[in-house]
Amino acid sequence: MARLYEESVRDIMNRPGEMREREIDIVVPDRFGEALASIPEGEKLSLDVRLESVHEGILVSATVRSTMHAECGRCLRDFTAPFEVEFQELFAYTPTEADEYGVHGDHVDLEPPLRDAVVLALPFQPVCRPDCPGLDPESGELRDAEAAMATNVDVDPRWAALADFKAVESLGSGVPESESN
Ligand SMILES: [Zn+2]
Prior knowledge:
There is one protein chain. This protein is of the alpha+beta class and 181 residues long. The protein has one domain. The protein is built from three helices and eight strands. The strands form two sheets. Strands 2, 3, 4, 5, 6 and 7 form a six-stranded mixed beta sheet that branches. Strands 1-8 form a two-stranded antiparallel ribbon. The site of zinc ion (ZN) has 7 residues, from loops. This is DUF177 domain-containing protein. Pfam families: YceD.
C-alpha cells in the first residue's frame, strides 16, 4: 500500500525549472491521528500535488482534502467535518541532515510528510460546531434547547458549514447563558 504514495519524478529530475501537477486520490490504509479527531482507515484523501524540479532536488507542494471524523470535546457527540491541509517539502538528491527527505531512485515517497501534515493539522480539541454549548455538568444533558434539538440532526459537513456561518453572523449578540436555578 505504501507504493500508492510514491510518485515518479523521472521526467523532471535534474531539470531545474520543470514542473508537473498531479491529482492523486488515496484510500487511507491505516488511521491518521491518535486523538479525538482522526482520518480513519478507508476514508479518501484527495491530493493536489505540484512537483517542481529545483537544483537541490524536487520541491513538493500539496493540498490535501478529506473528511475528519471526530468526537466533540464539549458534547461528546461523534461528527464529521471537511478537512484540508497544505504542506511543502523538499526532497533532496543528497540529503544532508537526518531529518531531510530524499529522492529515492527516480521517485519520492509522499507518505511521511503527508502523514505528518495531516496529524499536526487535526484539531486537538475538536468541536462539532463553534458554539456547541457542551454538557451540563450536573445533568449530563446538552445545555440548551437549541443544542438538544441539534442532537437529532446528523452533522453533515454542509450543516457544519452552515453552523460556522451562523456563528459568524451572531458575533456580538452574545452567547446565550446557560440556565441556572
Ligand atoms: Zn458538540
